[in-house]
Design brief:
Layout: E1 12-14, E2 17-19, E3 27-29, E4 48-50, E5 54-55, E6 76-83, E7 99-107, E8 113-120, E9 134-143, E10 146-149, E11 154-158, E12 169-171, E13 174-181, E14 192-198, E15 205-212, E16 214-217, E17 222-226, E18 230-231, E19 237-245, E20 253-263, E21 265-268, E22 272-276, E23 281-290, E24 296-304, E25 307-315, E26 317-318
Antiparallel strand pairs: 1-18, 1-26, 2-25, 3-17, 4-11, 5-10, 6-7, 6-16, 7-8, 8-13, 9-10, 9-11, 9-14, 12-13, 14-15, 17-19, 19-23, 20-22, 20-24, 21-23, 24-25
Length: 320
C-alpha cells in the first residue's frame, strides 16, 4: 500500500483501542474464534487413516441420485455432516458399543484435515473388553442407496481411553477427534458420511450412523492489524497496517480495496491493497494527523468480492 497519513500529532504517543469483529485490540478479523485447524505434532497418535475402500449398508432414506458436489464456481472449503440415521434399528451390542450421534467435518487446508465428535450410548470400561469397539468414521459419495467411501477417506480409533494418546479426546460416552490429517480431503467433494462401531478386528458390525454431507463455501479469512507508533509533533505520522489472509482458508481474496475514514483526524492512504493469497500478508501504512484535541477515530474498511471487514480504532494523545 502507498503512503498516506493518518493518526495524531503534537509530541504525543498513540493509544489504540479496537472494536468490532473479534480478537484482540488493534485487530479485526473475519474468522471465527475457534482456533486454527492446523493439526498438532501428536494430532494422529491415536488415529489411523484407513486405506481400504468400503460402502455402507443399504439405507433407502439417503436418496439415490444426489450430485457429488456443486459446480466449482466458488472455492470448496470442505464438507460437514451430522449423522443420526442408522441401518441397525435395534442393536444388540453393549451400550458402550452403540452409537447415538456423530458430527464430522473435513477441510481442504493443510493438505487435508478432518475432525469430529462421536456420542456413545454409554461410557466404555477400559478394564472390560466386552465394552470395547473400533470406531470408523468414513466419507463418501452417494451410490444408489449406499454411501461409497474411497480408499483413504476414513479414520479409525478405539472407543477406549488408554491415557497414552492426545487425540482422540475421551470424555465418558463422548469421543472428540481434534483436527487430524486426512490427505484425501484435500480435493474431496464428498456428499455423504457414515460411522461404524465394529469389533476390534473390524469383522463384526455393532452399530452404525449414516447421512448426507454438505459442501461449504470457503471465503477469504482476512484480518487487519494496526500497530501503534509515537507521533511527530507536526505533520502526518506513518502508522503501519498489516492485512493477512489466514492459512485456515483455501480462498484467495482478489482485488482487495481499503477505505479509511477519519473523525477528528486527517488521513491519507492508498486504497489499492491488491490480491492476498491464503497464508500471505500485505504490509503497508496509513498516515494520520490530528486536527482537534481529544479523542479521534479512524475506521478502516476492507472490501473484496465475497467479504466486507471493518475495524474502528480510537486515537488520542498521550502526554509524556
Amino acid at each position: 500500500m502507498r503512503r498516506t497519513p493518518r493518526l495524531l500529532a503534537s509530541s504525543t504517543a498513540l493509544a489504540v483501542t479496537a472494536s468490532l469483529l473479534l480478537l484482540v485490540p488493534g485487530t479485526a478479523t473475519a474468522a471465527d474464534d475457534r482456533g486454527s485447524l492446523e493439526p498438532t505434532a501428536r494430532s494422529g497418535d491415536g488415529i489411523t487413516v484407513v486405506d481400504g475402500a468400503a460402502s455402507s449398508r443399504d439405507f433407502v432414506r439417503l436418496g439415490a441420485s444426489a450430485p457429488a458436489g456443486r459446480a466449482s464456481t466458488w472455492p470448496i472449503g470442505g464438507g460437514r455432516a451430522t449423522l443420526t440415521g442408522t441401518t441397525v434399528p435395534a442393536p444388540t451390542a453393549a451400550p458402550a458399543q452403540q452409537l447415538v450421534g456423530a458430527r464430522m467435518a473435513h477441510y481442504r487446508v493443510y493438505g487435508g484435515v478432518m475432525e469430529g465428535v462421536v456420542s456413545l450410548a454409554a461410557a466404555p470400561d477400559p478394564a472390560d473388553p466386552a465394552t470395547h469397539a473400533l470406531i470408523v468414521m468414513r466419507w463418501g459419495t452417494i451410490s444408489d442407496s449406499t454411501c461409497s467411501s474411497p480408499e483413504g477417506g476414513a479414520i479409525a480409533f478405539s472407543n477406549t481411553d488408554t491415557d497414552t494418546v492426545s487425540n482422540p479426546v475421551y470424555a465418558g460416552d463422548r469421543i472428540t477427534v481434534k483436527p487430524t490429517r486426512l490427505p484425501a480431503a484435500r480435493t474431496a467433494r464428498w456428499n455423504c458420511a457414515f460411522v461404524d462401531s465394529r469389533s476390534l478386528d473390524g469383522a463384526t458390525l455393532n452399530d452404525d450412523l449414516i447421512g448426507r454431507a454438505s459442501l461449504f463455501r470457503q471465503k477469504p479469512d482476512l484480518s487487519i492489524r494496526v500497530k501503534g507508533r509515537e507521533l511527530r509533533a507536526r505533520g502526518f505520522t506513518r502508522i503501519p497496517v498489516i492485512i493477512k489472509n489466514s492459512r485456515d482458508t483455501v480462498a484467495t481474496a482478489p482485488r482487495v480495496r481499503l477505505t479509511v475514514i477519519g473523525r477528528g483526524v486527517a488521513v491519507r492512504y492508498n486504497p489499492r491493497v491488491g490480491t492476498i493469497k491464503p497464508g500471505t500478508t500485505r504490509r503497508g501504512a496509513i498516515f494520520v494527523k490530528d486536527t482537534r484535541r481529544g479523542i479521534g477515530y479512524v475506521t478502516l474498511k476492507l472490501r473484496t468480492k465475497t467479504l466486507r471487514l471493518k475495524l474502528r480504532v480510537a486515537v488520542r494523545e498521550v502526554r509524556r
